[in-house]
Write a structure and sequence with these properties.
alpha/beta, Arc Repressor Mutant, subunit A, D-Maltodextrin-Binding Protein, domain 2, 3 domains, 9-stranded mixed sheet, two-stranded antiparallel sheet, 11 helices, 11 strands, 40% helix, 22% strand
Length: 290
């Protein structure tokens, strides 16, 4: 019988293509991944991975094992989900993945309220822009700004996150739109909806700076570096900022909650889902115009 931990490390290498990348995804060191991979190859007495200088490539047998092992992984996670769903009411750990801006500027403000209501549930919140796999138990619940499409997930829309243009009240060009300079994302985010919207509003006017995450946009706007497109729930709470009028269509992103169908009946998961639905519904910033 194979050691499941060895198979799990092999799957990470097969998906990511490097030992270091697999180590980061599993939160272990490079040597552990290498050791686990070698142990699996010793168990099956076959080379599964070609270790190249900068990457790892599956051998023909490795590819076949990878295809079968993915089914093993899904069955293993299905067992975990079944057991989690049978836990005693309102106890245990629930992991939540959400966009960093929602975690840092909204969700954390409600954690004390959740803890008071459900003291037996430990909520683990990760601010992640990447799309996590609920099937692989990378999270129990995910909040996303794009509708999740995993076939095994149950999806619910919680509201929307409206954006608008903002500038510091002390911005020198505040009343001269032709001279505005814009705070935008870097080239790696060219396809992101809010970047496309912002560039369409800028209409060729200068870019003051490029920043990869939204809290940096907020800080740069407060410092008077330029005009930025910010989530209204975030920027409206800052007295030093004000909305500025522009020619163009309003812009917003829908907020979606997804959970794997096998755990949605778990009491602790259901408690977190109900909590999320309530705090978004109670905040006009996420419901106005819906």
């Amino acid at each position: 019988m194979f050691d499941w931990e060895n198979v799990r490390h092999f799957l990470a290498v097969a998906r990511i293509g490097t030992l270091s990348g697999a180590a980061r995804s599993l939160e272990v060191d490079h040597a552990t991944v290498s050791r686990r991979l070698s142990a699996l190859e010793d168990e099956v007495k076959t080379r599964l991975v070609e270790r190249l200088p900068r990457s790892c490539k599956l051998t023909p047998m490795g590819q076949r094992v990878f295809e079968i092992a993915q089914g093993m992984e899904e069955n293993a996670y299905a067992i975990e989900r079944l057991l989690d769903a049978s836990l005693s009411p309102l106890s245990g750990k629930v992991s939540l993945s959400a966009p960093p801006v929602l975690v840092a500027s909204f969700l954390v403000k409600h954690l004390a309220q959740f803890r008071q209501t459900h003291p037996g549930v430990r909520l683990s919140v990760a601010g992640q822009a990447r799309r996590v796999s609920l099937s692989r138990r990378e999270a129990d619940i995910a909040l996303r700004l794009v509708r999740p499409e995993e076939a095994t997930t149950v999806v619910r829309k919680l509201g929307h996150m409206a954006f608008d243009l903002y500038a510091s009240r002390d911005y020198p060009q505040l009343n001269n739109p032709a001279a505005w300079e814009f705070i935008v994302y870097d080239a790696g985010f060219a396809d992101m909806p809010q970047q496309k919207w912002l560039m369409s509003v800028a209409r060729g006017r200068p870019v003051a700076c490029e920043i990869s995450e939204i809290t940096g946009h907020l800080a740069a706007t407060q410092a008077g570096a330029g005009v930025a497109g910010l989530p209204c729930f975030l920027a409206d709470a800052e007295p030093g900022l004000q909305r500025v009028a522009y020619d163009g269509e309003p812009f917003s992103r829908d907020i979606w909650m997804a959970v794997h169908r096998d755990v949605r009946g778990s009491p602790q998961v259901r408690a977190v889902m109900d909590f999320l639905q309530k705090i978004f519904a109670d905040n006009e910033a996420f419901t106005a115009g819906a």
